[in-house]
Each structure stands twice: as C-alpha cells, then as structure tokens.
Amino acid sequence: MSLFNLQGRVALITGGNGGIGLGMAIGLRDAGARIAIAGRNAQKAQGALAALGGDAIFLEADVTVKSQCEKMVADAITAFGRLDILVNNAGTTVRKAPQDLSEAEWHSVMDTNLTSAFLCSQAAYPTLKQAGGGKIINIGSVMSIFGAPYAAPYAASKGGIMNFSKALATSWAADNIQVNCILPGWIDTDLTAGARAQVAGLNEAVLARTPAARWGEPSDLAGTAVYLASAASNFVTGAAIPVDGGYCARA
Ligand code: NDP
Fold first, then answer.
1. What share of the chain is helix, strand, coil (3-state, %, to 5)?
2. pLDDT at 1
3. Could you give the number of structural domains in the chain?
4. Which CATH number characterizes residue 82's domain?
C-alpha cells in the first residue's frame, strides 16, 4: 500500500469544488494528501470543504486568467508549505453546431479547458522542479479521441490537452515530473446534467454504448487519480488513461 501513500503530499485540484474534481480530491485526501481546491464559486466550495474536512482549503480563482493561476498556485504553497500534485480539472462546454458558435464561445471553451492547463502547469513548474519532482494530472475526455456534432471546441480542447500532456511529459521528465491525462467517460455531474437536458437521446445512447451499462460517478475517478499522483506511477508519463466503463473499447 505504501506505493499509493500520499502522506505529506499537497494536491491542488482546479474545479475541485464539485463533480469529478471533488471526487478526485476525496480520493487524494483518503490516500493522505492535504488538499487545496480551486474554482470561481465560493458558495459551492463550502459543500466541498465540508465533504473534504480536515485542513482542506478553497482558493477562489478563474483559471482562464494567468495572474489568477499564478496567485492560486502561490497561495496553495503558502498555505501548506509545498506543492506536489497539480490536477488540471476545471472544464466547461458550449453545446452548439460549429456553424452557430461565436468566436467568444470558442475561446471561452479553449481557455477554460486547455489554456488553463498550460497556465497552471507553468505556474507550478518552478516549485515542482525545486522539490525534485511532482505529478501533473490533466483531465481530458473520451472526446480527446472522438468528436460529437455539438462539441467542436470541447473536442478540440480535449484532444489538445491530451497531446499537451504528452509534450509536457517529454519536457519535464528530466525534472522527475510525471504528466498524465485521464480520459473520463460519461460521468454524472452538473456538466452532464446539462448535456442530458440539451441533447435528445443522450442518456439512452450513453447507456447503450458503455459496456458497464451505467453512468460513472465522480468517485470512479479517485483510484486513477491516486495512482497517477503517487509513487506507483513514477515510470508512467505521457499516458492517456480512459476511465470510462469500457466506452473507448467498444467499436
Ligand atoms: P462540473 O461542471 O461539475 O465541474 C467543473 C468545475 O470546473 C467546476 O467545479 C467549476 O467551478 C470549475 N471551473 C469551470 N470554469 C472555471 C474557471 N474558469 N476557473 C476555475 N474553475 C472553473 O463538471 P465535471 O465535474 O463533469 O467536469 C470536470 C472535468 O471533467 C472537466 O474538465 C470536464 O470537461 C471533464 N470531463 C467530464 C466528463 C463528464 O462526463 N462529466 C467526461 C469527460 C471529461 P466554478 O464554477 O466554481 O468555477
């Protein structure tokens, strides 16, 4: 079990105030890490902090803004004295046909899902390097691999974050920083509650295509997050791991 032990480690999870981010934060906490969650909605964060307990903190930050990413990382380090694990999880979507998207909508999805991972990773890098190593976990999607008619910027950003992870992995392997990407399948969160409401037949299509024949829960991501945050994955970098009930395995 010591391979997966995160005692003494500090993890910062963007979008950790709800959904998949909170599911991973709880898993990292259970493995022993101290937790900083970040997002824009301080009120939602109160429930997340109650679920996390202990000395978990919330950092209010918009990850599309470089100065706020830098402050968020600095504040986490000030609060806990170190940073070992960065989870770039914050994400959003705009569900429209590509011909109907505005340029602003395109940029809002790309900035939230992809540019944010660049900004937060860059902000964390000096500390991880100085500590002699660290872990970056980026959250992609099954849309890192596949597309959908209503998800052009989302699929572009998620394909981008998967390949960004590979590039970072090659850049920072010499610093003992492992960078990997998780590709969640269809997980029951606020984000997908919107999808179910907007996309006719989505619920049935997900259940039919997912071999596990159910939607995932945020807690389904916890084990892979702990693995990628721990010494168990020290020779794993640049990987993209589906956590999808078999969705990507099905033709
Ligand atoms: P939620 O909407 O529940 O969570 C998204 C989180 O991101 C929120 O906590 C939100 O917090 C935060 N966030 C959004 N924009 C910003 C911003 N500009 N700055 C800071 N925080 C921000 O969705 P999920 O939990 O479902 O999604 C989490 C990640 O998982 C996303 O990257 C998503 O694309 C990915 N994913 C989800 C899947 C699913 O089926 N649910 C499938 C595949 C991938 P706040 O509002 O407080 O800012």
1. 55, 15, 30
2. 59
3. 1
4. 3.40.50.720
